[in-house]
Amino acid sequence: MTKTSITSTERRTHGLLRLARTVTVVLVALASGLAAPSAHAMTESEAGARAVISETVDEVLAVLRDKSKPTEERIRSLEQIVYGRFDLYVMSRLVLARNWKRFSEEQKKQYVEEFKQYLTNTYGNRIERYDQQEVEIVGEREEPRGDVVVKTKILGGEFEGALVDYRLRKQGSDWRVIDVVIEGISMVSNYRDQFKSIVSSGGPELLLKKLKEKNAAGMVID
Amino acid sequence: MGRWGDCTRRMRLAGLAVIAAALTVGVACAPIPGPRHPSDPWERMNRGTFRFNEGLDRWVIEPVAKGMDFVLPDPVERSISRFFDNSKIPIHFGNALLQLKFESAFEDLARFVLNSTIGFAGFFDPAIEAGLEAHHEDFGQTLGYWGVPARPYLVLPVFGPSSPRDTVGLAADTFSTVYPWFIPIYASFSIGVGQRLNWRSLALDQIAAEREAALDYYVAVRNAYLSYRENLVRDQKEDVTDDEDLYYFD
């Protein structure tokens, strides 16, 4: 009884959807008259950076989709992909900003290692939340000093339409990601603010201690 | 009638209690570590209010939201969330107009018409399938568009991260929902509570993960709020700005 009513509702929704699409074609045609899309020729840098993001997205999605492998193994594969495409050294250094100079050589080395582990734990445990989302590259822009921002959008799932920008910098002949900006929230900037308050109250030692504590607690897979 | 009268009175009392508690916590809180953040001159008070909100969330909101999450399947919650989003489109439409974003306003209007009718009062979103995207323009953003800055940061009791600008925006949007449609203020509050709980139960995992991961959760939330709000205001201005301070060592 309930089942039939759901199917008939669904069928009705589908018919109406088709109508909606027809109506929309007209609406969109009207809307596009209001603003002509501005096409821009891609620079060589933009094309290079875009290709890196496009490959990375494909590889990451392939790992996320393959739910036959155990979680641990998939996290290791993701690490391989991410470590190869992200410049974690530059990221770690940008996060510390002026405080970088306050760290001794040994502390710098420790910090870069701990921060890398921290990011792996933080983002690795979110792997199980993947729910068939797709990623679309929506644009790219070369910045005045040569970095390139590649803009992407998430399709499907609970974050439908969320905008994720990747900032890339050329290191030798390779483009490497140095920041991820989700809906305007920059990872580098967010960690910078957090770490700044810690370093200024307890010096490099306190930051290293806090990172080590977090990392020792390990990864909670939810 | 009398029942509603009681209800509003009780709500007013609850409101006073909340503000009093927030102030107590705010005054009693420990000195802040490190130097002041330029956008957060009221950090001492804000940290107090933030702690109060976290307590409220932990003891009241999260448990109720978990209950909801247990009872209602996620697709139902997402549907409810779409309904709330749809009911706000007239506000978004008005604010898009105030920001001279006619294309967004037009798209919002089309979304509202499609979703309110064949989307069953907004519980479904056929408009997005049809390629009509949502624009969340609120009055805080309108003020931002006309030059009012998103800072200083201000944590409101119960409502959470905000700023003087966005507090005015929230009040304006709330009252412009209430009066033209003759919705009584207490009904508007209950809708607000329902929406908040529904949103919270959809975000259970994310918030737990952020709390768990952050080294300083207060700072993480402040940075996220300010960046997010600034980004929303900046949206259609495509001027190239290289963030020197953020991305270069020199």
What percent of residues of chain B adopt helix (DSSP H or I)?
55-70%
Give a count of the beta strands of chain A, DSSP E runs of length 2 or more: 5
Mean pLDDT of chain A comes to 84
The outline of chain B comes out as: globular
| Order of strands, widest sheet of chain B | 1-2
Q: Please give the most extensive interface between any two protein chains, plus how many residues each contributes.
A: A-B, 57 and 49 residues
How do the helices and strands follow one another from N- to C-terminus of chain B? HHHHHHHEEHHHHH
Structural class of chain A: alpha+beta
Compact overview of the structure:
The complex is a heterodimer of chains A (222) and B (250). Chain A is α+β, with helices and mostly antiparallel strands and 222 residues long.
Written overview of the protein:
The complex is a heterodimer of chains A (222) and B (250). Chain A is an alpha+beta fold. Chain A is built from six helices and five strands; from the N terminus they run H-H-H-H-H-E-E-E-E-E-H. Chain A has a five-stranded antiparallel beta sheet with strand order 1-2-3-4-5. In chain A, helix 4 (88-96) packs across helix 5 (105-124) and helix 4 crosses helix 6. Chain B has helices spanning 2-28, 43-71, 74-87, 89-98, 102-117, 126-129, 139-145, 164-178, 185-202, 204-213, 217-234, 244-247, and strands spanning 154-156, 160-162. In chain B, strand 1 and strand 2 form a beta hairpin. Helices cover 69% and strands 2% of the residues of chain B. By secondary structure, chain B is mainly α. A two-stranded antiparallel ribbon of chain B has the order 1-2. In chain B, helix 2 (43-71) packs across helix 9 and helix 7 (139-145) packs across helix 11 (217-234). The chains are: A alpha+beta (222), B mainly alpha (250). The interface between A and B is large, with 57 and 49 residues.
